[in-house]
Known about the structure:
The protein is of the alpha+beta class. It has helices at residues 22-43, 49-61, 106-116, 124-133, 147-159, 230-236, 238-249, 253-267; strands at residues 5-13, 82-88, 94-100, 121-123, 166-168, 171-174, 177-182, 188-194, 215-217, 222-228, 272-278, 283-284, 291-298, 304-308.
Amino acid sequence: MNSFAIAIHGGAGTILRSSMTPEKETAYKKALEDAIVAGEGILVKGGRSIDAVEAAIRVLEDNSLFNAGKGAVFTNEGKHEMDASLMNGKDLTAGAVAGVQNIKNPVSLARAVMDKSEHVFMAGLGAQEFAKKVNAEFMPDDYFFVQLRYDQLQQAKQSDIMILDHTVDKDKKFGTVGCVALDLHGNMAAGTSTGGMTNKKHGRVGDTPIIGAGTYANNKTCAVSCTGHGEFFIRSVVAYDISCLMEYKGLSLKKACEIVVMDKLVKIGGEGGLIAIDAKGNIELPFNSEGMYRASKKSNSELYIGIYKD
């Protein structure tokens, strides 16, 4: 009998028990569970993996705990520039957007690029115009205003640095969100969404919307969604590298993830992690940082939720 599997992440980094209140931990776990449930609800009924991935990411984008959608961080100019991408492993179709503003669910705009345009990647003003044509949901600036994020911007501006989500008392978190899924028909999909870096300069784009770097899906191998210091993930073409190691070297998903996350990335100073799934429903959630918000669920198995290394 065919089975389904789904995994999500809500960012990686220096996430320590010592800097987490019980209330905050509970809120994160509830948010991760809600996202898994949204995706699982589609998969269990025989729905498509691409729909499950979009649904799960929308839940995370709507939660201000995560640096995507509603909780997106502030740029140097005090704005929110969001990136997102989606890829379908069945036919390698993909959609991505970068630098979009006031879009409630950037992942759904990326889906629209995939389904309703002849392009794969749209950015900036062009993506904004496209969003209007496809009736994407826009929200006013105050919808995206989160006091914690604003405080982070002021802190970053004082020291003139870019901050990866939040770097408070070692609580450094790369706040991307993502999802990978395998449906009952054997098709895989992957998606990723982010608000980028606090105090980032206008126009900076990380790995999230770049197919092959932050997101990749191919039924022949795996589906991958990354979170971490985007510049390193772009240079290492992380998501595609895992697929290549499986396709051309015949490595297992576990081994491919191990080599890329724990060895290749570490050697060039890249911190972060990823979630990945293969055609058999194997799930890997590797990270080389102190923690990663993550959750996974397979057919007939218990929900797994993790935050810290152990």
